[in-house]
Amino acid sequence: MQTRVSFATVLSMKDEFQLYELGYILAPFVAEEALPDLIVDLRKAIESAGGLLVQEEQPRLRALAYPIGKVIDHKRNIFKEAYFGFLKFQLVPNALAEVKGALDKFSSLLRFLILKTFPVETMRKMQRRIAKPAVVSHEEIDKQIENLFTETA
Fold first, then answer.
1. Is the dihedral of CA 40, 45, 49, 55 positive or negative?
2. Rounded to two decimals, what is the model's pTM?
């Protein structure tokens, strides 16, 4: 399930808030029935710091590229698969440490990464601004080279 906030809402808050994306990996021992409650807890950690959820991707069980180890209840565990999901949210930059502190307390979170990002519409505009290389034929290049030689002679 994905939830969204309008682009106009995100833009109206641009002076105060920054858009972030939280990518997370959850331990596979979390029961599928318990995932929604755990996601609600992750959302609460963001919202309690003053964050506004923009988009979310429900976690899906995936094979990991490499084994991840984590000590849980004084025992080292190695995981070869885990749930991966993400949340996009708006937050005042100085509240980011509070969110990180809250996330650090989740024992079922194997890894997480918070990235500063841009709204999709902004990314599309930036891509349009990037100039496409001009296509120049070999004949045109040869003419320009000849002109350079004739100008210097």
1. negative
2. 0.68
Q: Give the model confidence (pLDDT) of 109-136 as tens digits.
A: 999 999 998 876 655 665 666 656 667 7
Residue showing tokens 């502190």: 101
Buried b (16+ CB within 10 A) or exposed e, 72-110: eeeeeeebeebbbbbbbbbbeeebbebbeebbeebebbb
From the centroid of its chain, how far is CA 55?
11
> In angstroms, rounded to a whole number, what is the distance separating the alpha carbons of residues 99 and 40?
14
What is the CB neighbour count within 10 angstroms for residue 49?
A: 19
Q: Which ranges constitute the DSSP H helices of 68-137?
A: 96-104, 120-129
Q: What does DSSP say about strands 109-116 and 18-26: parallel, antiparallel, or unpaired?
A: antiparallel
Cβ distance 69 to 147 under 8 Å?
A: no
Amino acid type, 41: D
